[in-house]
Prior knowledge:
There is one protein chain. The chain is 33% helix and 26% strand. The protein has helices at 13-23, 76-84, 100-111, 128-139, 155-162, 178-185, 194-197, 212-220, 238-244, 277-297, 319-325, and strands at 4-9, 28-35, 51-53, 66-69, 89-91, 117-119, 143-149, 152-153, 167-176, 198-206, 230-235, 250-259, 265-274, 302-304. The protein has a seven-stranded parallel β-sheet.
Amino acid sequence: MSKIRIGIVGYGNLGRGVEGAIAQNPDMELVAVFTRRDPSSLKITSANVPVHAVNDAEKFEDAIDVMILCGGSATDLPEQVPHFAQWFNTIDSFDTHAKIPNFFDSVNAVAEPANKVSIISVGWDPGLFSLNRLLGEAILPVGNTYTFWGDGLSQGHSDAVRRIDGVKNAVQYTLPIEEAVNQVRNGENPELTIREKHARECFVVLGEGADAVKIEEQIKTMPNYFSNYDTTVNFISEDELALNHGGMPHGGFVIRSGESNAQDKQIMEFSLNLESNPYFTSSVLVAFARAAYKLNIAGDRGAKTVFDVPFGLLSPKSAAELRKELL
């Protein structure tokens, strides 16, 4: 069989992760990387794979089966995904949960008439966690679903801290509160507020002359990020930040606590413990790229979510192999 031909738009942490994940899948090949930077200035890992300006991507319509879009959710993906869905099957990691329905509609309006498949909001949350929330509710309709994140570095929250005047560098970690987790695992079905489920911890390097007291107050009262959480702010040196906080770990778990009759408590749990958030997300994107390709060659089209993709399509194995080896 010919290999699935993949293109990458954007070459940050996620793009580099996609490049590495493609190398682990023998049924795929990386055709090109597209960037808004000067292509001649971008050095990628893959030998003999060209780098092109993002504005030239449409010229590769016949050379690429699936385009994986590795930009950010705030401004990149809402514009890029509908744009590229004119010419390619696409995969993205749009993760602004509240905006997913509108994002889906905007992508579908382009992908469907173009006879392309665009699987949106792929990753681990939204993505794998979404699937496990669905599975729990379908199997245990009487009960409650709980999602906990961490321990892990939040890239969006870290960026929000770094944007404060006087902050030279910073990282922020999301921490599930152990007492709340234990209540859920014990089948107590607690009603938990945001503050009762997670705490936040910041490690901040101050710029010269910065007011630590003022910055700590700005962090703890920042709406939508920290004001609803118990937040700890630690001021550290640049060397300590580089030594102890250079990685991008993350993870979490989805728990469905329910009952199958009036007497029996049932607990379903799915968890992730990740050394690299973007690199794991990249692996999910690549698996769903295979599914997008298979759906499209079977005649499907339009925007999809992880709920619309049979698990078997994620695998390079045939249906017969899956029945024999994994069922």
